[in-house]
Amino acid sequence: MRRPAAFALAILGATALVPVAPAGSSCHVTYVERETPVGIESRQRTDLRAPGLAGVRLTIAGRVLDERCRPLPGVLLQFWQTDGNGVYDRAGNRLHGHQYTDARGRYSVQTIVPGTYGTRTPHIHVGFRTRGGLQGITELYLPSTVRAYGMDVGTLNARDGWFDERNVLRLGPRRGNGYAATFDFVFARR
Ligand SMILES: [Fe+2]
Question: In total, how many domains does the chain have?
Answer without folding.
Answer: 1
